[in-house]
Every structure is written in C-alpha cells, then in structure tokens.
Amino acid sequence: MKFSQRFLALAFLSSLLALAASFSYGQTSRGTLTGTVTDSSGAVIAKASVSIRQAGTNVTRQTVTNEAGIYRFDAVDLGTYTLTVQASGFAKQETTGIEIQAAHTSNIDVSLKVGATAEIVTVEASAEAILQTAEQVRGANFSDHSIENLPITGQDSLTVAQLLPGITVINQSVSNSINQDGTFAFSVNGQRPRGNNFMIDGVENNDISVTGPAFTITNPDAVEEVNIQTADFSAEFGRAGGAVFNQITKSGTNSLHGTATYVYSGSAFAALNNTEKINGKSSVPRQVENNPDFTIGGPVVIPHLYNGHDKTFFFAAGQWDRIYGDAISGSLRLPTATGPNPGVATLQALAAAGCANAALYLKVLGSLAGDPTRVPSSIGLDVPSATGTCDNSTRTGLTLNTGLFVREEPAVTLDNNHIIRIDHKASDKQNMSFRWLYDDNSSVPGFNNLP
C-alpha cells in the first residue's frame, strides 16, 4: 500500500513537471529584461548581484552580471517591476516602474555610484526604456488600459489590430458571414488570412479547418495584453507569413481584485435604415443583447492549510452573452397533406407497399406538411426500371405534390465564455502556469434542417 501511494504521488508529480516543462517553451507570451552594469567611469562591473521584483505579486528573480557586465532575465511575466543592482563598494541602486511587455526586450543600463552598501539610490525608469532596440520587429503591444478604453468590436480584443498599418479586413461581406468582427479575414501586408498565426499565452490557437483563432476570448477584461507583430519577428514565432497575434490572459496578484461589467445593446437605441423604410417598416426589428461579465483574481489561500501570498495565484473570468431578436422565418419544401392528390397520402401508399424510406420520411415529418397554396410543385417519382425498387414498379406517372412549409421562431443566441488560470512559483528557477478555457455557443433557429 505504501509503495502504491508513493508510486501514485511520484507519477502525479512527474505529470505536473512534464506539463510545466511544456509551458517553458511558451515564452512568447513573456518579455525579456537586460542591460549593462557599469561604474561612474563607464567600466563594466562583473558579478554584480541583480534582482527583479514584480509589484503585484512580490515574486523575485535573481542573477549576476557576466564578465562583460551584462545581466539578462528571459521569460519574465508581464507587469511592473523594480530592478535592484548591488556590488561591493557601491551604493545599491533601485530602478522602479519598469513595464515588461510580451515578446519585447527592454534594455535598462545601470550606472552604480561609489558608496556604502547600505546606501540606496532610487531612480524611475524612463519611457525610452520600453523602446524595442534589441530587435527590428514591427508591431505593437496593446495593454489592458488600451483595451479598456478602445471600442472593441464584438468584445473581441483582437480587433485592435485594425489600428496598425498594413492590416486590413478583406472581403467584408464574406468575413461578416464567418465572424462578426472580421477576425478571420485579417490581411496583413498583402498576405492571405490563412498566413496569420494566433496564440493565447504563447500557445498555438489556430483553427486548422478554416482560418483565424480556434478559441475567441470575448471578455476583454480577462486580457492583460495583446501583442501583434506584423513583420521581422524572430524565428521562435515561425509559421506566419502575415502577422503573429498573441493574447496574454491576466493572472492573480497578492491582493484580491476583480471587475464586473454589464453591456446592453439593442434596437431601443437604433433607427430605421433605408432598406427597412423602403420595405414599409414602422419600427426597428427587435433585437436585444445582454452581456454581463466578471473577473476575479488574487492569492490562493486555504485557511489553516495554505497561504499562497508571493507564491500561488488564481484568476477567473466569465461572460454570458444573450441575444434575443424578432421571429425570423424560413421555408422548407414538404409533401402536402391537403388539396388534390396530397403528397402525404402518396407516401403512405408507398410505405404500405413496403418502401421503408417512405415510412421513415413520414416518421421524421410527423405533423409537418407543405401548404398547397404556397409555391406548389410536383416531383416525379417514376423510374426507368422496376428492378430493385421497393414496390417492384416503375411508378409511371406517379408524382409527389409539395408546397412550402414556413417556420417562424424567435432568434436566440446564447454564449458562455469562461477562463481559469493558476500561476505558481515552484522555486527561484521554475514557474508553472495552468489555464482552462471553455466556450459554449448555441443559436436558434436553424432553418436548413427539419426540427
């Protein structure tokens, strides 16, 4: 029994480490911080102690400068950091307000002043510090503040891409039939939409059947940053001939925080368009959309068992989109049940003669039947040979009378979109991230089939 328990525990730990290792390759959703440490004369300082601390989580990382005085932190989670550098014989220097962005290398050079170790020099990071000077990539990073303040089409934060040069939505009529906001039809620098690469937290999110993202995050409050690279991106991204779209989800911090939003849109705020006026409409067709969502994040704390401050964090987001509209109609051509030579009676006679498919069709139809006064049409049922037919007849002159059956149902679209993320600092050299996505969408009615 003890051996089995130890084996299961080892297997579980191994699976976690394997999963964590898989996440280590998804560094495209993180940033890099590097720089050179020198003294006041410009001479480099080797083996200086360098650390960074994230403001929201207090998670720290440490390293030392090499012989050229260079330090480097790769795969740094997004957020605001404080950089601390100290060396023997020099005053400790702290640089605050360093913003780390996805797929972005920030250069912060530090010049230490001679002084006592206990002395601390604090400086604020300049705006130039976040300029991309290490690589020639073209694109932009849209922070959560930009996403909150910009108009987001269809609640999809990827649509901010249209603000960048070289990105257009091709064939708008086609893209609207596929996706409301045209995300599936982004043409970047003249490339076809299939040439784009979509990611979430650095992990592939491409729809392999058509194009565009496989999963759409429709809660903008759940997105920390949208990183878009349109040209000259590094080889680690690969695949894309157009652009690389990377959405980074939010994570928890040491403080409990969250948002609650309710968005309403509908015909109450709309006016008749020209087509509706021509068709004699006196009021705008009814359509109401209620879209509540929430986010919540913080440390994982289990009273008397576990305190996740500075170590383990959670973030959750949910959205429930509800769209209701006026009844829309669709028509199906079905056998008639009334009028001269009704089609249902013809099928019943065939079913009685042993035609199994006719009996199955009648069972599917149930009480539904075509209206003989709505675009009536007769379908010939005769065949050139009686061999192999269900009633051993060529059915010469036999026809099936049909008419249109009109369905009217209210238009209802329901969508549930959820995200859960867990971040854990296992050690100074290992971080683990786990994310769960869920989306359920249903639309009623579908007029292309029988009920």
Termini, distance in Å? 55 Å
Low-confidence stretches: 17-26, 174-180
Strand content: 35-45%
What characteristic shape results from the CA principal axes? elongated
Helix-strand pattern: HEEEEEEEEEEHEHEEEEEEHEEEEHHEEE
Tell me how many strands there are: 24
Largest sheet: 6 strands, antiparallel
- Content-based structural category: mainly beta
If you compute it from the alpha carbons, what radius of gyration comes out, rounded to the nearest whole angstrom? 32 Å
Q: Give the % helix.
A: 10-25%
Number of helices: 6
Mean of pLDDT: 85
Secondary-structure map:
Blueprint: H1 2-24, E1 31-39, E2 49-54, E3 60-64, E4 70-76, E5 79-86, E6 92-100, E7 105-107, E8 110-112, E9 120-124, E10 138-143, H2 144-149, E11 167-169, H3 172-178, E12 186-188, E13 197-200, E14 203-204, E15 223-231, E16 244-249, E17 257-266, H4 274-278, E18 287-299, E19 301-302, E20 306-307, E21 312-335, H5 343-352, H6 356-365, E22 377-380, E23 399-427, E24 430-444
Parallel strand pairs: 1-7, 1-8, 6-9, 13-16
Antiparallel strand pairs: 1-4, 2-3, 2-5, 5-6, 10-15, 11-12, 13-14, 15-16, 17-18, 18-21, 19-20, 21-23, 22-23, 23-24
Helix pairs in contact: 5-6
